[in-house]
Design a protein that fits this description.
Length: 101
């Protein structure tokens, strides 16, 4: 499954989640069978050629999430996690909060 995360850089270990309007890069995490297969970075979501992304993980529930939901993505937000590694670990154990109507 593919997961979008707006981040402040293009380092898979050190980049931290940020609000969408502050995102310097969008991390696209390929998560399968309980582990990260790859992390790719894009300047914008539109720069990616993937037809379907399953999830987007945002910094808080007050972010604009309707566009993601309209594209069929599940929207989640972090609690205290900051790095991609911490966020995916929380995702794995269902410790992220769901955003929705």
């Amino acid at each position: 499954m593919l997961i979008w995360i707006p981040v402040d850089g293009n380092d898979a270990k050190a980049s931290k989640v940020v609000p969408q309007y502050e995102a310097k890069q969008w991390a696209l995490v390929n998560f399968d069978e309980g582990e990260v297969k790859s992390v790719r970075f894009f300047d914008s979501r539109e720069a990616c050629d993937e037809a379907w992304v399953d999830f987007v993980i945002l910094i808080n529930k007050y972010e604009n999430y309707m566009d993601f939901m309209n594209e069929g993505m599940m929207t989640l937000c972090v609690r205290e996690e900051e790095t991609i590694e911490d966020i995916i670990e929380a995702f794995k154990f269902k410790e992220l909060d769901e955003i929705g109507l």
